[in-house]
Amino acid sequence: NDSLGGGGLEGGTIQMPRTKRTAVGGAGGKRKPPAPKRYKITPIPAANAEKKHRRYRPGTKALKDIRRLQRSTELLIRKLPFARVVREICQRHFEKGAHTFRWQAAALQALQEAAEDYLVHLFEDTNLCAIHGKRVTIMIRDVRLARRLRGPMR
């Protein structure tokens, strides 16, 4: 016998090594019908059982929110707080006069849409400045650069 216990001469016969073989043809005959499918029985959750919270990878929810906001057309700033800020600025700017200014709802809405449009485009340019600086996080210097590149009152 071989000391390694492998092939060689055993009892006067030569043992051939095993090789991988693939079947060439079918065995023929009738095919068996497929076995009936077994359905997995799932227990009914209790009424007070807490639903498992879905954990998203970092950034997934942010991208989902961005896509949702890009599809929508509604205003992003709440109307009442914006109106308060507008009235406060108007009152501070014209405080020398004794009268208070009244705003039409359509005028406040037009002003809010213009303000939001300005901010959205400013942040688009700011994001491009951050990407140009090989960053994904916007910084105050990106906002300043975007405003400088836009020029006055744009």
Automatic annotation (TrEMBL):
Keyword hit for Nucleotide-binding: no
InterPro entries reported for this sequence: H2A/H2B/H3 (IPR007125), Histone-fold (IPR009072), Histone_H3/CENP-A (IPR000164)
Alphabetized UniProt keyword annotations: Chromosome, DNA-binding, Nucleosome core, Nucleus
Localization: Chromosome; Nucleus
Domain called Core Histone H2A/H2B/H3: residue spans: 58-149
Major subcellular site: nucleus
A Pfam short name: Histone
Nucleotide-binding as UniProt keyword: no
Species lineage: Eukaryota, Sar, Rhizaria, Cercozoa, Chlorarachniophyceae
Biased composition (Gly residues): 1-11
Coiled coil spans: none
SMART domains in alphabetical order: H3
Region described as Disordered: 1-40
Protein name: Core Histone H2A/H2B/H3 domain-containing protein
Gene3D superfamilies associated with the record: Histone, subunit A
Protein family (similarity comment): Belongs to the histone H3 family.
GO terms for cellular component: nucleosome; nucleus
Compositional bias of kind Basic residues: 29-40
GO MF entries: DNA binding; protein heterodimerization activity; structural constituent of chromatin
